Amino acid sequence: MKNKYLLLVIIAASLLFSGAVSAVVAWPTTLTKHGDIMMATLPYEPSGLAWNPLTNKLLTVCNTGQITVMNMDGTGQVNTKMPSYMDFEAITIVDPNSTKVYIGDENPDAVFEYDLQTKALTGKSWNLTSVLTGADNQGLEGLTFVPNGYHPFPNSASGGVFYAGIQRPPVPGGATNDDYLLYAFDIDLNTSGKIVNWYGITLPSSIPNSDISDLYFNKDTGLLYVLFDGYDRLVEMKTDGTVVKDYSGVPVADQEGLVIKTNYPSLTADIYLGSDSGKLIGWYSGYPVDYDFDKDGVNTSLDCNDRDATISSLKTFYQDLDKDGLGSDVTISVCSLTPPSGYVTNSDDLNDNSVGTDLDKDGFLAGVDCNDNNPLLTVLKVYYKDADGDGMGLASQTKNVCSLTPPTGYVSNSSDKNDNDYDNDGVITSKDCNDKNSLYYTKKIYYRDKDGDGLGNKWRIGYYCVPPSGYVSNSLDKNDNHYDN
Fold first, then answer.
1. What pLDDT sits at residue 485?
2. For the chain, how long is the longest CA-to-CA vector?
3. Backbone torsions φ then ψ of 7, nearest 5 degrees
4. Which residues form the domain of 117?
5. How far apart are the C-alpha atoms of 187 and 196, rounded to whole Å?
6. Which of 84, 26, 38, 86 lies closest to 62, judged by CA?
7. If you placed Cys at 422, which of 24, 309, 360, 435 could pair as Cys (CB 3.0 to 4.6 Å)?
8. 254 pLDDT above the threshold of 90
């Protein structure tokens, strides 16, 4: 017999979290593929991925009880294997400042605490088999941590809840805990084995109903990313199960690991996909993302101030030259709830006390002139946002002000093709080793030229973004102690 209290919770959750139907779209063709990250320790099948945004490290686990930490380009791999067989399928980070991470195990379904510093399990674990029921190889495959404030459940004393996904399809009409593909667990991280509560999340019928292979929550976007390897699908959803986007044709075979590495303020991210059969991690950049930092329902790309939930679009104010509280038909649009000096929120003035005059003698009447005290200013000037500070503005982001001087962060031209690339060499700032010079964007090998003859010593090399004095790009010197060889 089902627990009556739990049944009420599940029914309420079913009503609350039924996601909206979203059309399937093809995988973006604009992504840039980087070289596959091959696993240095074999045999190794990447079964889950995690990213620490503070250390900028990539973590992965294997279903033979291995955990590997590496740089984001796959270099510097450090592998640790458990002394006995453990079926690791997922990994997630609760606190980026901590050395503790949490590993999802499929057989039996459980969460283990692991210490990256000691390279060992801490002894704390939480058995989930009372909820995640199912046959072997049909259990827990995805695990991610969602902090309080980003999920719809009661706040957890542990700072958030763990979302877990399983392979087997839901079993409606059976036991209550069989009814779901996606679960949320409130785990007491201070007490081994203590599960405070769990919740089932009903997913819409438009997405696959089995084969979840990994989960990833990104705090910047506020979205849960759900990977289905049997269908080559990646579904973006809100943490209540509402589908935002559903991609088909995920490019890596047998995907069992997922990381979305955001690069704010860029509206694209790096995506890492672990391939079980390929024994590799596919790495792509250019994955489209958006943010909503002030949680006002308007994404960064459309929000004029995404750090203030009280405002999201430009407000129109009306010029009040005679300061009677009534505005004329001369307007200004700014991202503010408060009108700037000399402007009001209404356009009720029939005579703004200066209509018909031309105080600055520039040929423009005061009712038309945005500044009738300066003959050099008559109409609002258009300025263009210059986020990367290269002196070139972006045509799509403008601000109209009555000033001959552009506001901070804006310029008078719209020549920038990429406002996240200072030197406009095609490499974004975050990936450019010298974004002030278009000649240099990645580290290269340079050769020591001790005798200053312009020829380098092939035995004396250095890796530099910009070659220092005494180094050249060739290795043609036969004798670096003799100027003319």
1. 64
2. 94
3. -60, -40
4. 4-288
5. 6
6. 86
7. 435
8. yes
Closest CA to 152 of 172, 174, 125, 182: 182
**Number of structural domains in the chain:** 1
Residue 12 pLDDT exceeds 70: no
Torsion of CA 133, 134, 137, 139, to 10 degrees: -30
| Segment 353-377, tens digit of pLDDT | 655 567 777 777 766 788 888 888 8
88 Cβ contact partners less than 8 Å away, ≥ 6 residues apart? 47, 48, 61, 62, 63, 64, 65, 66, 67, 103, 104, 105
Residue 38: its H or E element: strand 37-38
The pLDDT tens digits for 23-50 are 899 999 999 999 999 999 999 999 999 9
The pTM (predicted TM-score) of the whole model is 0.67
Question: If phi over 0 gives left and psi between -120 and 50 gives alpha, with beta otherwise, what is residue 349?
Answer: beta
Is position 43 within any domain?
A: yes
Q: Report d(CA 201, CA 27) in Å as an integer.
A: 26
What counts of helices (H) and strands (E) characterise the chain? 1, 31
Instruction: Scan for tokens 């093709």, then name that residue.
Output: 417
Give the CATH number for residue 191.
2.120.10.30
Partners of residue 212 on adjacent β-strands: 228
Q: Is residue 344 part of a domain?
A: no
Is 96 part of a structural domain of the chain? yes
Question: In this structure, what token pair is assigned to residue 15?
Answer: 């009503």
Cβ pair 483, 472 in contact under 8 A = no
Amino acid at 205: S
Q: What is the pLDDT of residue 93?
A: 98
Q: What is the DSSP string of 385-430?
A: E-TT-SS--EEEEEEEES-SSPPTTEES----S-TT-TT-SSS-GG
List, in sequence order, every residue forming a beta bridge with 26; answer none if it has no partner.
Answer: 248
pLDDT of residue 142: 97
pLDDT score recorded for residue 484 = 67
**Looking at the predicted structure, is the pLDDT value of residue 427 above 90?**
no
Contact 267, 287 (CB under 8 A): no
321, 366 contact by CB (below 8 A): yes
Do residues 466 and 434 make contact, with C-beta atoms less than 8 angstroms apart?
yes
Query: What percent of the chain is predicted at pLDDT more than 70?
Result: 93
- Residue in this structure with the two tokens 């004029």, named with its chain if needed: 304
C-alpha Rg value of the chain to the nearest Å: 29
The strand order across the sheet containing 331-334 reads: 331-334, 315-319, 343-344
Residue 369 domain flag = no
Mean pLDDT of 220-230: 96
